[in-house]
Amino acid sequence: MLHYAMPFASSFALLCESVRFLMKSHAFVRSNTPRALAEGVVPAFHKFLYFMFAPTLVYSDWYPRTDFLTGRSPNVRWRLVAYHLLEVVGCLFYISFLVQRYHLPVFRDFGLRPLTPLEGASAVLSTVLPSGMVMLCYFYLLLHAWHNAWAEMLRFGDRMFYLDWWNQGSFAAWYRTWNVLINDWLYAYVYKDVVLLGGSRLAAKAIVFFLSAAVHEFLMGFTLRLFYPVTYFFFGIIGFLMSFLNFGSTAVGNIGLWLSLFIGDGLLFSLYAMEYYARQNCEQIIDSSRDLFIPRSWSCVPIASKT
Predict the structure, then answer these.
(1) Residue 285 has pLDDT above 80, yes or no
(2) pLDDT per residue over 118-167, tens digit each?
(3) Which of 17, 78, 239, 296 could form a disulfide with 278, with the two C-beta atoms 3.0–4.6 Å apart?
C-alpha cells in the first residue's frame, strides 16, 4: 500500500479488509481451539470459507438461512442484490461530492497563510453538517446496503447488523446499537475473555474501548500517512468517559447524542484535514523521525515556493 502510494479510498478499503480478515481469523481460531484440543474435532473447510465471506464476525458451525427461516425458494434475489449495490455506489458518489464541495475548499490552503482563531472556528463549524452527512452515508453504505447485499447472495438469515441507535439517549446505548457486528465480536472475544481471565467488568470495558480506538487510529493513520491520534483521543478517552453519562431523559439524551455526533465528526474531519494539508503546505522544521509524531499543523511555517 505504501510502496505503491495507493489513493485514500483504496488504502482505506484495503486496510478495512485486512482488519476484517484478522478479526474473522481470530474468531475462528478462538471458537474452535478448545474443541480441537479436547476432542480433536475441527470444522470442515467449507464452514471456514463460508464464515470468511458471511456478514458476521462471530463464528458458528451453523447460521440461519433465508430458505430455512421463511420457507422461500433458496434462489438468490438478484434484483435486491443489484438494488443494494446501486445504493453503495450512490452513497460513494454522495460522500465524494460532500468532501469535494464542503471540506476540500475549506482546508486545502491550510498553512499557506496565517489563520486566526475565529477563522479556524468558522472552518470547523462549516464542516459540522457535511461531516455528519458523511457519517450517515457511511453507516447506510456499509451496515445496511453492503451487508444486506452479501447476506442475500449467501442467503444469510441473520440481518440484524444494527439497531435503532438514532433513538438512543446515551452513549453507552449508542455504542451497543450503532454497529452490532463489531459489538458482538468485541463482547464475545475481548470483553468475555478478559472477565474469564479474572479481570473486572470495568477493566474489560476499558480494554474494549482502547482496542477499538487503536484499530480506528491504525486505519486513519495509514490511510492518511500521518500520526495524529485524535481518533484515539475522541473515541478511546472521551468516548469511554461519556459512556458513563446518563442524561435521565431519553429526549434530552437523544438531542445531546446527535449534537455530539455531528460536532465530533466535524472536529475529526477538520483536525485530520488541517494536519494533512499542513504536511503538504508547511516546511519540515525538525528531523524526519520526530516529524512523524509531532503535528505540523500546530506550528506551521509555509513552504516558500507556495507563498
Answers:
(1) no
(2) 877 888 888 889 999 999 999 999 999 999 999 999 999 889 999 999 99
(3) 296
Q: Which of 3, 26, 103, 216 is catalytic?
A: 216
CA atoms within 13 A on the CB side of 13: 7
CB 281 within 8 A of CB 111: yes
Q: What is the sign, positive or negative, of the torsion defined by CA atoms of 293, 294, 295, 301? A: negative
- Residue 65, SS3 per DSSP: strand
d(CA 131, CA 202) in angstroms, rounded, equals 32
CB 196, CB 270: distance < 8 Å: no
Report the DSSP beta bridge partners of residue 37: none
3 noted as active-site residue: no
Question: What burial letters (b/e) apply to 111-129, b meaning 16+ CB within 10 Å?
Answer: bbeebeeeeeeebbebbbe
Distance of alpha carbon 64 from alpha carbon 225, whole angstroms:
41
Cβ-contact 270, 124 below 8 angstroms: yes
Q: Which amino acid is at 37?
A: L
* Grid coordinates given for 23: 478479526
Work out the end-to-end distance of the chain between its first and last CA atoms, rounded to an integer number of angstroms: 32
Nearest to residue 190, comparing CAs of 23, 18, 67, 17? Answer: 23
Q: What is the chain's length?
A: 307
pLDDT digits (tens, 9 = 90+) for 23-39: 999 999 999 998 888 88
Cβ atoms of 71 and 65 within 8 Å: the answer is no
